[in-house]
Design goal:
This protein is about 30% helix and about 25% strand. With about 400 residues, the chain is an alpha/beta fold. Helix 1 packs across helix 3 and helix 10 crosses helix 11. It is elongated and about 80 Å long.
């Protein structure tokens, strides 16, 4: 893989990850577990190395989206409890049991189906009950007229003999919007409904070891109030997203490339597909070996600039599949082979996401499998990963 590393690569700073984890743990206080969300290959950062680091740091849980993601962690030797947030068909319950995976239960039909398969296996399946408090996605409906039927449905799931109801959780829709009074009110109403559901269940004798609702937005904006037994930081664990900078969190991923070619173009020269850009004068244009197949969104064409040793170089013309062009006029220290940061410590992924009209999650998750990951501790490479060859 070494010969590929000077094309385009991603550096994953495990020290920054540790700093972010410790900052979050201090923010929510002792007695509250921290669940690290590592779904989607840890938001593009490399789930195995991230999970190992979180295990070393003392995380209480991990969360993934699917059985495949959970199984990858287990086969790599990760022993932390793992919660699958998404759907798992009941025929895979034997694998959930074999790999010691906790499964989210989102409705009565799934609870019954999981219980039946677990019964045939002769082993209890550990579950966390999902409550829909306003996201209208997954979970037992409990708002308004659904309150009583929702509570009864949860009680029934918890009474099934082959299910072990360890936890109960919900998910906030707008906890990352503290500047909007209607969003703050909506989050508080979600939280209040969640507490009312828990209280109603406890009155009927059903208690849970782990109650959790605080996603990244709630960790930033309601850290102690909504921490409960466990919090679920996602994007802020990786040092980006709303509130990350205010908390002093550090970006974990830096996406980098190099200059592969430099041309001096005459005035009026067209650059790239679609003739979106023509040079205003003589311009020194560099070609970077990174394009939308590497995860650089085409919507960024002509809209942003990338960091070089001589300052920011504006992107010129349309992003291609495997490359793009930048204006290096006046940046004489930038030569063929010089390093360029797409995003990282000098160039915020949040800013780049705003320029693309999206969120930072999409940019980090978009970094494709053909981009090698280099995992760093104290500035030195301690591991590499190129997933397209696994």
């Amino acid at each position: 893989m070494e010969q590929l590393l000077r094309r385009t690569w991603a550096e994953i700073d495990l020290d920054a990850l540790a700093h972010n984890y410790q900052t979050i743990a201090r923010r929510v206080g002792e007695g509250t577990k921290v669940l690290g969300v590592v779904k989607a290959d840890a938001y593009g950062h490399g789930a195995l190395h991230v999970a190992r680091t979180l295990e070393e740091l003392g995380a209480g849980y991990l969360a993934v989206s699917s059985l495949d993601e959970a199984r990858e962690l287990r086969t790599a030797g990760i022993s932390l409890p793992i919660l699958i947030l998404g759907h798992t068909p009941e025929q895979y319950v034997p694998q959930l049991l074999a790999y010691d995976i906790t499964q989210a239960v989102t409705c009565e039909a799934k609870a019954v189906a999981y219980n039946e398969v677990a019964r045939t296996c002769g082993q209890k399946l550990k579950i966390h009950i999902k409550v829909d408090t306003g996201m209208s996605r997954l979970g037992y409906l409990c708002a308004g007229s659904h309150f009583q039927t929702g509570v009864e449905g949860i009680l029934h799931a918890c009474s099934l003999p082959w299910l072990e109801a360890e936890g109960i959780f919900t998910h906030f829709a707008v906890s990352d919007e503290p500047d909007k009074p209607e969003s703050v009110d909506f989050t508080r109403r979600q939280f209040d409904l969640f507490l009312r559901v828990i209280a109603a269940l406890e009155e009927r004798g059903q208690r849970f070891a782990l109650r959790h609702c605080a996603n990244s937005g709630a960790v930033v904006n309601f850290p102690r109030e909504m921490a409960l037994d466990m919090v679920r930081p996602g994007i802020i664990l990786y040092g980006c997203g709303d509130g990350a900078a205010e908390l002093g969190l550090r970006p974990v991923m830096a996406l980098k490339t190099t200059v592969s070619t430099i041309k001096i173009l005459d005035p009026g020269s067209a650059v790239s597909y679609g003739l979106l850009y023509r040079t205003a004068g003589r311009e020194r244009v560099g070609v970077l070996p990174i394009g939308y197949a590497d995860g650089l969104l085409r919507s960024l064409s002509n809209r942003c600039a990338f960091y070089t040793a001589d300052g920011f170089a504006p992107l010129r013309g349309r992003i291609c599949m495997d490359m793009c062009m930048v204006d290096l006029t006046g940046k004489e220290h930038v030569q063929v082979g010089s390093e360029v940061e797409i995003f990282g410590s000098h160039s915020s992924v949040d800013k780049l996401a705003a320029q693309a009209g999206t969120i930072p999650y999409e940019l980090t998750c978009a970094v494709s499998k053909r981009v090698p990951r280099l995992f760093l501790r104290r500035g030195k490479v301690v591991g590499t990963e190129l997933r397209m060859y696994l």
